[in-house]
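User: quick one - fold this with zinc ion bound?
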Amino acid sequence: MTDPATGRPAVSAATVDRWSAVIAVVHTAHGLPNPAAHPALTELLRLVRSARPGRKLISRPLTGAEYRRLLAALPPDTWPEAVTRRRDRLVLTLARGTGLGPDRLLDLSLAAVRQTDAPALRVDTEPEALLLAPAAAPLECPVCAFVQWREILDIADRGGYALLEKEYAALPSRTIGDAAHTCAVLTAPVRDCAAPLVRRLRRGGAVGQARPRPRAVNNLVHAYAERAGVPLRGLSAFSLRTDTAP
Ligand SMILES: [Zn+2]
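Assistant: Sure. Structure tokens for the protein plus zinc ion:
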């Protein structure tokens, strides 16, 4: 019932309903018990009906505690791991805060995300802009994650790997760490640029120009869950959404 390539239902809920109605009629006509009324099947049908397009059928939301464990498993903020740390922290906190699926999240351009006065983060997306307030804990704050990633990205876009390696140690956010909010002190300059905000990374801290593949968010959730000892079963890129979290 699930397409192995996409993880999505291979047939619609309405089609399954029609099939089970036919099966029920045929069995009843022959004086047999209706297999479509079996509790295991009615539970499965309920799951199929509740699956929204684009969401994996068996995807489960990360609890708040599990989400914090994923963030705690990020690499250290030292060279060159800081590049991966800051990119991945932005992906995790932004997906959590906006609820955007992986494709739309990775499609965001530099121009589409900026700090506003609250201090908050404005994300221009269809059908309307989203405003993200800073989180209580600095590590979970999408605005801090944005500022810290932009420090890295702006240098990489200006002078590439060599300049980033040279200037990393002197980044203003390095003196703040995760004990306080970087977003309360630093503001990333607005860049009206169509280049993607989230980039593919190469080994050793080099930042590419292209956006990662949509599957990257899924892989990222799995990698940090594994490192944090969070059970992988049912986890996908969509597990970062809070709309279904208990
Ligand atoms: Zn913050």
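One thing worth noting: Residues 142-167 form the longest helix (26 residues).
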